[in-house]
Write a structure and sequence with these properties.
It contains 24 helices and 17 strands. The radius of gyration is 26 Å and the shape is globular. The chain has a 7-stranded parallel sheet. The chain has about 600 residues and is α/β, with parallel strands linked by helices. Helix content is about 40%, strand content about 15%. The structure holds 2'-deoxyguanosine-5'-triphosphate, calcium ion (2 copies) and zinc ion (ZN). Zinc ion (ZN) binds near residues 438, 465, 492 and 493.
Amino acid sequence: MARSFFSDGHRLMENLDVSRTLTELADLLEIQGASPFRIRAYRNAVNTINSLSRSLQAMLGAGEDLTELPAVGDSVAKYIAELIETGRISRLEEVSAEYPRSLVQLMRLDGVGPKKAKKLFLDLKVRTVDDLEVELRAGRVQGLDGFGVRSADKILRAIADHRKHAGRFQIHEVEKLIAGVLEHVHAAPGVGRVKIAGSLRRRKETIGDVDIIAEFDGDGTAVVDHFVAYSGAERISGAGSTKGSMVLHSGLQVDLRVIPPRSFGAALQYFSGSKEHNVAMRTHAVRQGLRVNEWGVFRVPDGADPASLGKEDGERLAGDAEEGVYAALGMAWVPPVLRENRGEVEVAIRGEPPELVSLEDIRGDLQMHSTWSDGKASIEEMARACIARGYEYFALTDHSQAMAMVGGLTPERAREQWLEIAEVQARLPEILILRSVEVDILKDGSLDLPDDVLAELDVVVVSVHSLMDQDRRTMTDRVIRAMRHPSVDILAHPTGRLINRREPFELDVEAMLEAAAELSVAVELNANPNRLDLNDLHVHRAKELGVPVVISTDAHSPRGLADMRFGVDQARRGWLSPADVLNTRSLAEMKMWLGRRG
Ligand code: DGT
Ligand code: CA
Ligand code: CA
Ligand code: ZN
């Protein structure tokens, strides 16, 4: 790699850092009122970067021309090179001299947008979310042109949501940011086992910080020093002999604990959490005269006061391996995805861990888009990608006509599409292409395509994309009415949430699931890591009610099909076994289910 791209020593720039900075630039330019074409160009470049499998920094280091990437023009390529070389983009700093960077947070609030952010700044000098809250509470926003009482209330709610999410990263972002860190930890001299713990190991949808544990015999200072010298660190927030913490450029914090071999399994267990799971385990240990902590499992000596014992006092029963920790407490090993104190401790004491669905069980994908609506690939490309994943079937679910801006299918275009499906199917007999549409649920619960078209589809997927601010009663009635249509098979992304960006709409999920059970409609667990909708608790409830869950990627390109694993992780967090998931069924069984209403 050419030196010039590490001009300040060893600055590591992840693709995600680049795409976030470009997004910030696009957002600020939008506030400033720059040309929409230019802004669109930057956002398209961000999409390219987000789906890139290679590091931009490495590409530049190898002398590659970034303008050869789709949607990356000369100016974006220049910005990327500048950012990677110097850690900044001067254009961004120019714009932010006029409009502060913190305004970007404002315009991401539901109900604000670039024009309102600009007005708030120019008229009321609002720079930050905190400023905005002060102005709202003082009643000074309500009087501004284009605002009003209702919109002010909406923004206050959006601020509360924003606070809830602040500082949490989505799991797929964290995975990208942490790969280099793990490699770096493995390279520390003398280090043995290295494991991810915390919420990332439990596969939570969002991650506060990353917890890594590394096995090392002796004083850990050198390991910690090596850790915090990582080239992607923005700053070091702590470094001692057993623990180091650093914050990456993206703002993600990473903690490392250095653990001696005899305690590695106990530390892995402890730092994997959740805290609630650990508390329940500790209570169970105490009942048996045992003590569990990050050092091991110990027998409390007769007559000893547990409060006065040192960390490793008493007979050591386990510690080097996590399985041993659970075994010493008379428990079956608990898969990390279940460790939320939702009944898993009791189950593991009885020794009956549930069978959980895994990626290998998935035999098809029941939601994806092609160039017939807003997808990026042809039907044949999507089909071949599904074959490459070993699937037996898939459903092609382009949007319906209400989604006119993305070319949603009219009845006429749906029929044209079926001709192309038939052609592709004839060429690719190794997979079954199910004719489908992701049909919009209209305002009153009616469906966006006529009955005769719906009747000719193999699978009917329905979902809400409009009027998401209806009240709970109206929305619940709307969704259940749609599910009552005799052609409907699957309710897709049932709550409409976008993680960290849009709250679920008002829907009585319990009532919806009861209706699904009664009507024999399946519910989707959308595997896109921005959605993961339904969430873990809801899919667990679906299981209890006997509602089949479909894990679908909603892919808009062949790459999107790989998101399936995020959906599977979420399903596992909801305790789903293969039998609870519709798309683990064989082709023959799937056909039977689709024909269930005769
Ligand atoms: P996060 O980072 O907010 O996504 O969630 P976690 O679960 O990774 O939480 P974190 O990073 O604060 O701590 C990592 C693990 O360490 C946590 O899951 C359980 C363990 N832990 C932390 N504090 C305590 C505590 O006070 N008591 C117990 N029993 N365990 C704790
Ligand atoms: Ca954590
Ligand atoms: Ca932590
Ligand atoms: Zn959709």
